[in-house]
Amino acid sequence: MNKPGSAFVRDSLLPARAPPPNSVGIVGWMRQNLFSTPLNSVMTVVILVFIVWAVTPFFRFTLVNAVWTGEDRQACATATGACWAYVKAYLPQFIYGRYPIGERWRVDVVFWTLVVGLIPMLIPRAPYKRLNALFLLTVFPVIAYILLTGGHHQFSGRWIPNSWMSPSPLRFAVEYALVSAAVFGVSTLFSWMSGRPITGSWRTLGFILGAFAIVLALVSLDFGLVPVETANWGGLLVTLVVAITGMVASLPLGILLALGRRSNMPVVKLASTIFIEVWRGVPLITVLFMASVMLPLFLPDGVTFDKLLRALIGVALFNAAYMAETIRGGLQAIPRGQYEGAQALGLGYWQMMRMIVLPQSLRISVPGIVGSFISLFKDTTLVIIIGLYDFLGQIQASANDAKWASPVTGLTGYIFAAMVFWAFCFSMSRYAAYTERRLDRGRR
Amino acid sequence: MNRNFASILVGAALALASVTAAGAGTLEDVKAKGFLQCGANGGNLIGFGATDEKGEWSGIDVDFCRAMASAIFNDPTKVKFTPLNAKERFTALQSGEVDVLSRNTTWTMSRDSSLGLQFVGVTYYDGQGFMVRKSLGVSSALELSGAKVCTQTGTTTELNLADYFRSNNMPYEVVAFEKNEEVLQAYEAGRCDAYTTDASGLYAERLKLVAPDDHMILPEIISKEPLGPAVRQGDDKWFTLAKWTLFALLNAEELGLTKANIDEKKTSDNPEIKRFLGIEGDFGTPVGLSGDWAYNIIKNVGNYGEIFDANIGPSTKLGIARGLNNLWSKGGIQYAPPIR
């Protein structure tokens, strides 16, 4: 339609023209991001050349010249590329170590139970989070322990002299009851001295000791599983057992230590600080070495402490100290007003921490916590020093096999180890980034 | 809260410290357990102690444990192997984690006298040797005058090398590296004429070369590295048992008893064989075993020569010649006291 009066005024919008061809598409993107200035152009070319120079041999080694099939070293002896045939032949051992072949289904069951339990935990919208967490933290470890070791643990007690009572599960039960009674006694004394109600602490204690007794009874039952001693565990199994136990144990311990270090109670504060600083001041390799070589010499004759257990305790305590410092950082970032506000509402110490402070500080600490987890995962390779053959250790050991020994076998093993470790660590870091974004939504 | 934790930890320690009743002697403990716990090489030393891709153990050190299990239980499978590394092996033996340590361990005076263990004997006489290219045309280490020799830094290997060349008035040049892999790479790349380390190691490393058959190990052994199993000090009965297991392996070879022919030899008139098989005299009871203990060892595992040939001998990939490890009657130094 024509409005009168303004012949020189446009009454319809000009249709948008296509942008100049050199500013759109791939060409445009490259002009803008890679070749915007002469300096950038030069840098782009240099880096491109470097990437091609560095990456081509890698691809040539791992893919182009690689040997994919073969029965023994003959296939790889003259190869100039990776010997994947060896990885294929050895894959079961990389995963299970020397775990008896007929019993490996038990490892599989444990692994898939963990996966099935863990995936709904990782998906934010999946229901029954609380039940699921309870399953993963209480039922699952017991199942895993029984399946992996074979259960049927013989308890016979060790304090009551043989002349009073011969070694038997009954003697152990009596000893357990005595220890429990002693713990109850001490707690009653404390409560009485501090004038707090006794029944509350009794209930907590009874619950813990009772649950522990049930666990002990379960692992002593005979399920007809062949026992597999931990010396024969190996490969990815050991890596995951050490890493996951370390993560699960170090987080709550770390939280407690962080709270302890920020506590107003001098003894608790001092004890936590000393613990953290001592463990942080010692390299993990020293801790493991102490646990494996020195500890057995201090123990009385005939008492042997499982090697894997020693490593697990060492790794967990070591990482708890680092975790504590990460979390303390998060605690310190919470403004004073939050604490005061919580106190003004009449919340007690634990309520304040649980409902107000920790949720906020843990959210801040997520990147640090995941960083700790990733470094823990990689640190598990150090258990080789105490003769536990983890994923990397198993690969190193297998490269010596006369059946497969060749100039490229060792190299292939290391590349494979690097790829697997990268896959685990990268997915952890990606999931953490996703969680960070999700938790941060309210603050943007 | 901390108190609760303490109680949990006390309970855990109490529960998990595995309870092994300190019995009268190792043999009684082993019999009660129903198996022998043997410390083996976890790092896969081919021919000595190694697991294949199925997790099956093999090697002469491993077979020694199987021989002990055969002597005790008449069943070579009643042995459990604990993979050990070089650092923790002695602790594992001292603390009772293993009953016998059979992990290519060199018998030296300091180890024998101050580590609380006793060496049973020598299962393999090892020593430092040289590997050269066949194309070099050398057949003895004494012809290596002026050679460039690859070796690892900071080990006794380097010192032995210096001593040997100096005492033979030969000039030489050391090309030393920090790591074993680097040494092998340098040798492969032709940066040196010879590669020196323990002979058993040379045979194993040779397999990692592109063409193992182009290289040879020279006959000269320039140091003493006797490898053998060890047991805890203080249990003489157990020590005797382990010692005579080794002697039985050697005596069987000397008497010509093999896995295959031992049943036929039961009818032999040779008094030595009769004593060996337990047909004449009772030599088992004093060491706590049955009369046919030696028969069981050979029937289940074979004699020393058979073990050697099956694991590291000329027909295997390693292809180690008997050399020093031949019987004394055949030019070697393996010798066992008689069963009498």
UniProtKB/TrEMBL annotation, chain A:
Major place of residence:
membrane
Stored CDD domains = TM_PBP2
Q: Which residues form a coiled coil?
A: none
> PROSITE patterns, from UniProt?
ABC_TM1 (PS50928)
Q: Where are the transmembrane segments?
A: 39-59, 109-126, 133-153, 173-193, 205-227, 233-260, 281-299, 311-331, 362-391, 411-434
Localization: Cell inner membrane; Cell membrane
Report the superkingdom from the record: Bacteria
Q: Does the keyword Transport apply?
A: yes
**Into which family does the record put it?**
Belongs to the binding-protein-dependent transport system permease family. HisMQ subfamily.
- What is the protein name given in its UniProt record? Amino acid ABC transporter permease
Q: Which organism is it from?
A: Kaistia terrae
From TrEMBL, chain B:
Per UniProt, the keywords (alphabetical) are: Signal, Transport
Q: Which CDD domains match?
A: PBP2_BztA (cd13692)
Q: Which domain of life is it from?
A: Bacteria
- Signal peptide (residue range): 1-24
InterPro entries the UniProt entry points to: Bact_solute-bind_prot3, SBP_3_CS, Solute-binding_3/MltF_N
Pfam families found in the cross-reference section: SBP_bac_3
Q: Does the keyword Repressor apply?
A: no
Q: Boundaries of each Solute-binding protein family 3/N-terminal domain copy?
A: 35-265
Q: Which family does it belong to?
A: Belongs to the bacterial solute-binding protein 3 family.
What name is this protein filed under? Amino acid ABC transporter substrate-binding protein
